[in-house]
Amino acid sequence: MSKAQSLIEQFYLEEQERIAQESTFTPIDVSVSSADMAMINTISKRFNKDKNQLVREALSQAIVDMFSALEPVERKMLAKDADELANSIAAEIAEEQGLSTLEVTGVNWVAQDKQCIKDERKAEKEQQKQQEMLAQKILAEQEEAAEETADEMTNEAEEVTSVEEADSQDASTPFTTEEEASEEYTPSNNSIFA
Q1: What is the CA radius of gyration of the chain?
Q2: CA 94 remoteness from chain centre
Q3: Distance from the CA of 82 to the CA of which of 2, 33, 106, 182 falls in 20 to 30 A?
């Protein structure tokens, strides 16, 4: 088989996959604001995407985000209900198209719930780790400040001690050398009575 023939084979497979996937989609009529529609048109033109596919992907992601924001207990219940309903809808579509079964495409909500739980636990651990690091940093800063204060107090005490020692030396020994003593008691030659 030539490369061109294998390329055509690939196109047929892609088309079958697309048709099978699209057959599981349930149509929905949605009205959007003109501003939203303008952005949908702009993005679809920019990336050469089908508007319906773009809206479908955006809506799918928004639903996942909304699901993730639910309370954990409620999310678990709704996930189970949604998966059961998805299987029911797929069975109806298969029956309409004369197929024995039809694989459900899209999100498995029970699995998505489990992923949400993992993400939440990971976020909690990360937050706890950041709080511990912040506490350690604050403690280290406090210890550093305490050491600086202790050093300043020690330096001030040493300065006071040095000044007191100098003052006590001056008071106990008025003359440090004989020369200073003789100069102190020697009358000056510049006296007015001389």
Answers
A1: 44
A2: 44
A3: 33
* Residues, the chain: 194
Instruction: Give me the torsion for CA of 184, 185, 186, 190, rounded to 10°.
Output: 70
Q: pTM of the prediction? A: 0.57
3-class SS shares of the chain: helix, strand, coil, % to 5: 80, 0, 20
Calpha distance 119→56 (Å, rounded): 25
CA distance 156 to 159: 5
φ and ψ at residue 188, rounded to 5 degrees: -80, 145
- Residue with tokens 């003593």, as numbered in its chain: 181
Q: Which two tokens stand for residue 2?
A: 């030539």
Retrieve residue 7's tokens.
């390329």
pLDDT tens over the chain, length 194 residues: 788 888 899 998 888 777 777 777 777 888 889 999 999 999 999 999 999 889 989 999 999 999 999 999 999 999 999 999 988 888 887 788 777 777 777 789 999 999 999 999 999 999 999 999 999 999 988 888 888 888 888 887 777 777 677 666 665 555 555 555 555 555 555 555 55
Token pair belonging to 169: 């030396």
Closest CA to 32 of 60, 61, 55: 55
